[in-house]
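Help needed: design a sequence for this.
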């Protein structure tokens, strides 16, 4: 992967990270601004369900941020774009679709097949 491509993915990852952080700040503001002291039990239950869903989404995004940070570290160390399992280059199309990918498409497919076999036991 050349420097221009690495720079492109670095900017993409940084922008993605900033979007997630901005959304998280908005969520915190919304959750703090809303009151769960609703008189109607159905309204309160609906509000609590919405809050729980939002918090679950934020937790998933928190985990995604750690993957983004790991990808940024791999860019800095020169390991970005190479499969952790085989050492082969990961296709640009795969990285475009999933910039945090650590496995080539073939290695990912093998990994998922192994997971499925072990999960069915």
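Sure. Designed sequence:
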């Amino acid at each position: 992967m050349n420097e221009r491509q690495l720079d492109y993915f670095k900017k993409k990852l940084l922008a993605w990270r900033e979007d997630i952080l901005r959304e998280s700040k908005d969520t915190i503001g919304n959750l703090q601004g809303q009151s769960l002291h609703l008189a109607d039990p159905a309204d309160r239950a609906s509000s609590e369900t919405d809050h729980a869903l939002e918090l679950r989404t934020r937790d998933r995004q928190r985990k995604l941020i750690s993957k983004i940070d790991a990808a940024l570290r791999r860019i800095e160390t020169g390991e970005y774009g190479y499969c952790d399992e085989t050492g082969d280059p990961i296709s640009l199309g795969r990285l475009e679709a999933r910039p945090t990918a650590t496995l080539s498409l073939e290695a990912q497919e093998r990994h998922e097949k192994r997971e499925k076999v072990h999960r069915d036991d």
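DSSP finds four helices and no strands in the chain.
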